[in-house]
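Fold it.
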Amino acid sequence: MYHICLDIGNTRMKVGIFHPDKDAEFLHFEHYELNTFIELQEQHPQSRFIVSSTAKLNAEIENYLKSQNGFLAINSDLKFPFKNLYHTPRTLGADRYALAAAASSLYPDTNCLLIDAGTCITLDFVSQSGEYHGGSIHPGIKMRLRALHNYTGKLPLVEKEWIDKLVGQSTKECIQIGTIKGTVYEIDSFIAEYREKYTDLVVLLTGGDADLFFYKLKNEIFANPNLVLIGLQKIAIYNA
């Protein structure tokens, strides 16, 4: 049976098609509609949909997915390949469950810090004993840029662009340095503090803005754009 894993975000959808006898296939869609899901199912008959969604799906898409044989939506009632120590498991996002599943499956017996740089930036920690502890949630780059524009009278809405300067020489440059470079410093500081406590830490980076950060962070990290999809498939297997 195929596993069609769907990571449906606020701005786009990523798809992982996991074949039983060949390498996984990864796709992404900037826009999606009901026909997108119907075509995926028709191209991979007898497949199973596994869904992590941070977006509000319209009723037509949601009903179609739920009607499919073996449909699995990630929630706290499932079994996971890690021990969950989060105090409010029902409030934990499906994408964070998937990341923890990916880390515990791909890096067993290893302390892992997972950084997902998307609409929000999340840091999540899985210990070498296979326990998910939680982490932190930060505003993403677009959110920070939009907040500066929306909550001030005159600051413009600027595009995310790395400016390799310390001193901005225009309002646009000042916003980009403060927002993007400031976020890099923020993440680097968190990684450094984790490394003080866990010297053997592996740091994994994923998410839509991962490329923006990968070469800027001082710490050694491993980028994998498909971590959520891999984790979804691991959860599906664990709940077979």
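Residues 171-197 form the longest helix (27 residues).
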